[in-house]
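User: quick one - fold this with iron/sulfur cluster bound?
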Amino acid sequence: MKTIEIENYLNELFPEPKCELVYHTDYELLIAIVLSAQSTDKRVNTVTPIIFSKYLSLKDLKKASLTDLENIIRPVGSFRRKSVYVKEIARRIDENYNGIVPREREILESFPGVGRKTVNVFLSEFYHMPFIAVDTHVERVSKRLRLAYMKDDVLKIENKLMKKFPKEHWARLHLQLVLFGRYHCKAMKPECSSCKLRCYCREIKEKSVG
Ligand code: SF4
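Assistant: Sure. Structure tokens for the protein plus iron/sulfur cluster:
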């Protein structure tokens, strides 16, 4: 069956998939995910150690100078907006939630810069809760492997993946799809010649037809 073959191959490629964002606490992870929007984990990992070694607690971070944060965050892009988000997220967690990032989706999604995908990544990574976050890699791979239609939006893709794969695999599958998209099934020049999922792939069929 297709989904079993996909999982088997992903298990072969990534037997121990891990989130590539560097973090030490719940709020560091949440902020790292927020910073990763329209950026890369690699870039985020160059700025978060600077932020969290300079501002050692949520109390420090909420009082950080905006200009200073902007200068640190600049390499990840959208740095003005993201700096405001970081300060406000730190303030809310410190003042309203006792310094602990809440687990409730509605609360998390009310934070600035935090949407459904960010919440899914955070809850599945930090609390090992069953969610599939659909980022650009997961979207591309799902469409290429015909797990979703080309016209599907991220919410449709998320629902389709949840229907097709067992719930206890979702968090792991998310990480594996991200890594597969990042290192094998890349947007430009995917490594199709060595891919064991060619028979399911839309790209291959389209190329051979063309
Ligand atoms: Fe991705 Fe190529 Fe594999 Fe298709 S054959 S899933 S495009 S790596």
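One thing worth noting: Residues 79-96 form the longest helix (18 residues).
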